[in-house]
Amino acid sequence: MKKKLTNILFVILPILIGWFIYSNIRINKPEMIKINGTIYIMTNEPTSKEKDDTPIGIIEKKIPLYQIPSENNTSNSLKENTKLYSRSKRLSLPNNIIFERDGQYFIATEKDMSDEQ
Question: Cβ distance 96 to 106 under 8 Å?
């Protein structure tokens, strides 16, 4: 009986540990948006939408959080039909867009592609 229990633990324990490690690695991705061929990292920094901010699209597809968006108008965090805006010229911060979440507006910053190999 002890030998059977020991054998089961040697099989089940590594499987559970492996699953736990895999789950933590795959979920450790930032929230991202891909629009017009560019990936943006969501900063969740609050901002305001100005009347001359330009709509640039909506999220058409939400993908799992552990994935990186590969198609335009996708996000691994935002719901479908979330509106996206580019900043007006006078308030323009380089490489930033605005997204709407729960009636509030936030900034997303262009992903630095220099770390991609």
Answer: no
Q: Which amino acid is at 92?
A: S
Question: What's the DSSP call for residue 61?
Answer: E
pLDDT digit string (tens) for 61-114? 999 988 899 999 999 999 999 999 988 765 556 688 999 988 899 999 988 755
- Domain coordinates of the chain in residue numbers? 1-30, 31-112
Q: How remote is the C-alpha of 11 from its chain's centroid? A: 35
> Which token pair is 29?
């991705």
Extract the tokens encoding 27.
């979920």
Cα angle 33, 39, 44 (rounded to 5 degrees) comes to: 50
Contact assessment for residue 43 and residue 108, using Cβ atoms and an 8 Å cutoff: yes
Q: What is the DSSP string of 1-68?
A: -HHHHHHHHHHHHHHHHHHHHHHHHHH----EEEETTEEEEEEEEEE---TTPEEEEE--EE--TTSP
